[in-house]
Design brief:
- The protein is mostly beta strands and 446 residues long.
- The chain has a single domain, classed as Porin, CATH 2.40.160.60.
- Helices cover 12% and strands 58% of the residues.
- The strands form 2 sheets. A 14-stranded antiparallel beta barrel has the order 1-2-3-4-5-9-10-13-14-15-16-17-18-20. It has a two-stranded antiparallel sheet with strand order 6-7.
- The N and C termini lie far apart (69 Å).
């Protein structure tokens, strides 16, 4: 039993450092992305992020873009471990403000640009009732105490965890066109990362029947019972615990881009983002587990990305966009967790846009994201599920120099499972998600 309770303390540490981890980049950097889902060959203002070399296609002058997204996500974990009081755990992720901004100055063959956005992380997650990996060790308390000759058949506890994660990216590019056919770009992105984690485990209770202490089955604090029977170590492990930690770090991402326009109606793009070596340092305020030392650093790289794009004008009012991204997850350093990645993540997207009127364009897109993760990678506190995203939206040309982009995003997830071996044999844990997002953006051209 002591082993299981110690394992819980370790899980508190691991979850706190992984609760919002993903594989890792946020590709949703503009409202145009929401309404098309394919932006790799963009020659619009959001090409600052998606296709810097394509910025030479803009008209000479100044271009500004300001965008925001609101994202709502629910993560559900269903665990079949037989001793749990509850088999379903729900975490809510809320991102009310997810801003991005773009600036471009174009003069002849040269374009200089700047972009800002949350390139990874970007939200908060709250698990009001904890997770099964937290609770399973405590669910074994009744059987463990009973095995010591003290009949016990119930437990309870108060668990909660909340984390926030935001990796701000500040990107600068220089783009140059060699005639109408080829343009190139080079850039760097400065990443400023911050994660915060707050949580607690309180009021761990059991109902032992132990007449020498006057205990006849009523619920009492587990730490009080273990103290009374001389088990100081177990008393400490079941005592209240608090966690309040911040992780901070910064890094640089080099970026190279190429844009090729063989025909006026056809545009190709290629972009490569190098692996971002990111080290996060603990700034610990409270850590009752004793396992989160202040000042300790850990690697949490942002993987290299190869991006390919195509934009084709099918007819004067109808355009098709195709995008492919390959994320080099296996080459990143995630403190060994990258070894649980079987194949690198990729996504493939198709977007269609039609000019309904001169002032209104309608669009829709579909994106398939495919993860190549081993079963051992998936946990209740950090898992990824292959999915299909659907985007819809419109562009409204408010005045000749001002555009308004509106988008809606809905993601359809599959399911992922993991089989564990417990004290009662095999049991399964299942992971489910739902995501809905809205975006609005303005573009202004001087």
């Amino acid at each position: 039993m002591k082993k299981h309770l110690l394992y819980l303390s370790i899980l508190v540490l691991f979850f706190a450092s992984s609760a919002l981890a993903s594989i890792i980049t946020n590709p949703n950097q503009s409202s145009l992305y929401f309404r098309l889902l394919s932006r790799n060959a963009s020659t619009d203002i959001d090409a600052v992020y998606y296709n810097p070399a394509g910025l030479t296609k803009l008209a000479d002058g100044f271009h500004f873009g300001l965008h925001n997204q609101t994202i709502l996500q629910e993560k559900t974990v269903v665990n079949e471990f037989p001793f749990l009081n509850n088999d379903t755990y729900v975490g809510k992720v809320t991102v009310p403000i997810f801003p991005s901004a773009f600036f471009v100055y174009k003069n002849g063959p040269l374009a200089l640009s700047f972009g800002f956005g949350p390139n990874a992380g970007g939200g908060s997650a709250e698990f009001a009732d904890g997770l099964p990996s937290f609770e399973i060790p405590f669910s074994l308390l009744p059987a463990g105490v009973s095995a010591l000759g003290v009949p016990t058949n119930a437990y309870s506890l108060d668990m909660s965890f909340e984390g926030t994660s935001i990796y701000y990216g500040f990107q600068g590019n220089a783009s140059f066109a060699f005639g109408d056919l080829i343009s190139v770009a080079g850039g760097v992105r400065y990443i400023l990362a911050q994660n915060t984690y707050k949580g607690h485990i309180r009021n761990v209770m059991i109902n032992p029947v132990y007449p020498p202490l006057g205990l006849l089955g009523q619920m009492i604090p587990a730490s009080q019972f273990f103290t009374a029977v001389g088990q100081a170590g177990l008393a400490a492990l079941t005592a209240d615990k608090e966690l309040d930690v911040k992780q901070v770090g910064s890094a640089i991402t080099p970026i190279l881009g190429l844009n090729v326009t063989p025909l006026p109606t056809l545009n190709f793009s290629l972009k490569y983002e190098f692996n971002t070596t990111l080290e996060l340092e603990n700034q610990t305020t409270i850590d009752d587990t004793g396992l989160y030392p202040d000042g300790v650093k850990e690697r949490n790289d942002i993987p290299a990305i190869l991006s390919l794009g195509l934009q084709y004008e099918v007819m004067p009012k109808f355009r098709a966009h195709l995008s492919y991204n390959l994320f080099f997850d296996k080459n990143a350093n995630w403190e060994g967790r990258e070894d649980l990645v079987d194949n690198n993540t990729f996504d493939l997207a198709l977007g269609l846009e039609y000019d309904l009127f001169s002032a209104v364009s309608l669009s829709a897109g579909v994106l398939r994201t495919q993860f190549g993760l081993s079963e051992q990678y998936q946990t209740d506190f950090s898992h990824e599920i292959s999915c299909t995203s659907l985007g819809f939206g419109a562009r409204l040309r408010m005045i000749p120099k001002l555009d308004l982009d509106l988008g809606v995003l809905y993601i359809l997830y599959g399911t992922a499972d993991r089989t564990y071996t417990g004290v009662t044999g095999l049991y399964t844990e299942s992971y489910k998600r739902s995501t809905l997002g809205f975006a609005v953006g303005f573009g202004y051209h001087l």
